[in-house]
Every structure is written in structure tokens, then in C-alpha cells.
Here is the input.
Amino acid sequence: MKTTIVPLGPQHPVLPEPLSFDLVLDNERVIDAVPSIGFIHRGLELLAPKRDFEEYVMIAERVCGICSFMHGMGYSSAVESVLALPVPRRARQLRVILAELSRVHSHLLWLGLAADAFGFENLFMQTWRLREEVLDMFEETTGGRVIFNIVKVGGMRKDIEDATLSRISSRLTAMKPQLKEITDIFLNDYTVKHRLSGLAVLPEAEARELGVVGPMLRASGVVSDQRLGNPMYEGLRWEAAVEKDGDCHARCRVRVKEIFQSIDIIAQAAGAMAADGIAAKIASAPNGEAFYRAEQPRGEAIYYVRGNGTRMLERFRLRTPTFANVPAVVKLLKGTELADVPTIILTIDPCISCMER
Amino acid sequence: MSLKKSPWLLHYDGSSCNGCDIEVLACLTPLYDAERFGVINTGNPRHADLLLLTGSINHQNEEVVRNLYAQMPEPKVVLAVGICATSGGVFADCYNVKGGADKVLPVDVYVPGCAARPEAIIDGIVRALGVLEQKRAAAEAKK
Ligand code: SF4
Here is the structure.
């Protein structure tokens, strides 16, 4: 058999970020996919021993510009558990609200990129138009569109007034009809279904075996969401979005469900705000180790910190969802057509800057 | 003149946090719509007049960036977007980060910010168009 090797990336129109695959092809069929990484690697974990642990939150936020808030929160939560800090309830509620808002914006971003990948540019533009409204809310409450610097070890850096929160929540609710109009296209449109249904199926057993996380895992029928059982989400009513089919369209459906679900969670949290302050006082430096698991828009992220009683941490380690999902993509690509490759890569919602840190 | 009216743009993401890339993409979408200046985002360096870099230069992508630049036709303009592309930013001390885009390419326009705001990026693009026009006129005069 004569095979051809086609390089995809690191610079490729479909991927805003440099991910690179060498695709081994037999005519149009993919026989093997060999990923190569490192184009974005910065090595920011090793900055942790050089920075004050409170300052490092700013570096942690810049792991990734899409989940920036969640990275700051995950890192802070890990340090807080080493310090055994009692984070006020209000701070935790504010974190839930901003985290869910991040999920809405991230999923909208993904829907847009996915539409672009299967050649529906108009849909991409419309989805991103709605996403701008969410970014407006970020700007109104934190001052930033991408990087917020609002979370800190012990709680939050600044408060958001109750009135602002309820305004945001009603603005989100008012967006629902528009969101529905757009997401209905993803769910029901003939062309979209044609491109996504039955493509790159990941059965449940394989999903478990490969250690897949996040919407990708839930689209294969596994109920797994790190928000379940997280004390931050206590008292909020929601359930994990799960689909059975395991194909690209199921992954899309999971994310669509989660957009509406996050809006509901925000409404619940904003309606029951506590008033016990926004930050706990830090009296000591972290001594010991801890890890924290957060459910990011792309799946579970694990933050590990180890301190030695000084202001600098000894080690910070981060395992990100894309890193866990890449082996599955390599598997899924085998046997597919070249024309479907960008779509399949996109359905895991790859975030390369997270993956490579 | 036609060059200034419809410049094509090539975006490459260096060693970044992704924040600036997303903002670059946001520039193309309805709210900001950089395409009204005739800018089109292309994936092919052979078609591009502007090279927009986000993120810093690291040991792995250095070669890629040089390559992309070499493949673009003259005259060409380089735009460094975000503080990472300007100097390495918060990551300047990382072991794998060499520094800003000007470590390997002649940068014409710098857009500061972390993340750079879409308005600032569009402003940078418009400035870059001016530089492109100057370069074109200079090349013309030499003929
Ligand atoms: S300048 Fe800031 S937002 Fe932009 S890529 Fe660098 S760290 Fe991210």
C-alpha cells in the first residue's frame, strides 16, 4: 500500500492555535495521525518557585485565555486547601457565577469555531455576535474581556453588587430566545447533522479506557462532572448533561445543553447571595500539598500545589482537559476521511495553550 | 493603492495564553468587523501582506515564524499583538520563552495590552496599512 504523509499545522486556517498532526493517508483515508506538540509550551509551571504564591494567581490565569477565570480559581482553591482557609460563602457564589459565565462564553466560542470548521461561516459570525454579549458582562463586572484578575487566594479581589448580578442574570435569560434560535440550527439543521452525525464515534467503554474527560466523556454516556459533589455548587439544582451516541453531534448537543444549564445555575446563585465578605485573611504561607479538581468547559482540570512554608511554592502542576482528550482524537482520526479531520479535531474543543502550558 | 484597500492578513499564534488570539478572531466578527477595511484572514502565507503575531517566540516555533515570514511576498508588514508578542510579557522568565516577536522578525507595529483589546488591534491593523503603503511606495520609487 502506498501512503502519503500530509502535515496539518502548526499553522492552519481552521485552528487558531498551533496544533500539529502528521496524517498518514491512503488516498483520502487517514491511516494514522501523529501529533507533535510544543509550539506553545512556555514552561509556566516552573515559574511557581520563582513567584510569590499570591502573585502567581496572575500567571495561573494566563494558562489559557478562554478559561482564565477558572484557572485562577483552580489554583487559588488548591492553595486555599493547603492553608485551610475558610473562604466566605459569598466569594464562592461569585466564583460559581463567573465560572458558569465562562462556560457560556467558552461553549459559544466553540460552537462558532465548529461551524467555521464545517464551512458554515455565517453561523460562526452569529454565534460570536452572541458571545460578545457575555464578554460585555465580564467587562462590566471585572473590567476585562479575557483576563480578569478578579480571583485571589482566599476569595475574590473585588465584589460585584447584588443589583449587577441580578441584572446580568436577567440579561442572560433574555438572551435565551436568541440562543435557542442559533443552537436549534446546530441541533436540527440537515447540513449540520449530515456533517456531524455518526462521525468519529467513541463508545462508552473506550471513552473510559482512554481517560477522556468533560463534554466528550459525557457525550459517550458517562455521568461525570467535577461540579457534582463540589461544595461550591451545594444547594444549586442542576444535573450533568449526558448523551448516548458518542459521535460529533452528541458532543455538540452536550455543549448546547450546558449553555442553558449554566444560565440557570447563574440565576439560582444570583438569587441567593450571602453577605459574609469576599475574602479570608491569609496569615501564613502554604506548607504541605493539595490538589483540586475543577470542571472546566473542556473537562476536568487538576491543580496540584506543594509548599514548604515559604512564600514561594515548591511545585505547581496542572493537568488540563485537552491533554487528557488528545489520545482519543488520535484514535478517532484513524479510518476517517481527510475532509472530516478538522471537524473531528474541533469536536474535542482543543485548547492548546492549556495543554502545553 | 489596491494593496492598501484589500490587505490580506496571516495570523500566527506563538507561545501565548490564547487570550490575544481569541481577540484577534473577535475582530473579524460582527461587532468589530475588521473586514470593513478590506482585511481578509487567510491561511496561506503566499497570499498575505500582513503577518499578525500573537504570543512570544519559543524554541519550537522560532523556525515556523521565520518560515511563514519568508514565504510572504514583498512588501510585507509585521504586527506584534499583545504584550507577549512585544516582549514575552508575564512569561518572559519562562525557560522556553525567548522573548517578543522582534527576536526573529523586523516588527513594524506593536499593539500593547494583555489581552490587547479588539479596538487596539484594529487600530494596529490600520497603522500597519500605512506602513504597507510606505513600503510599497518606496519599492515603486526604486524601480
Ligand atoms: S499578552 Fe496576555 S492575553 Fe495576550 S497572549 Fe500574552 S498573556 Fe495572553
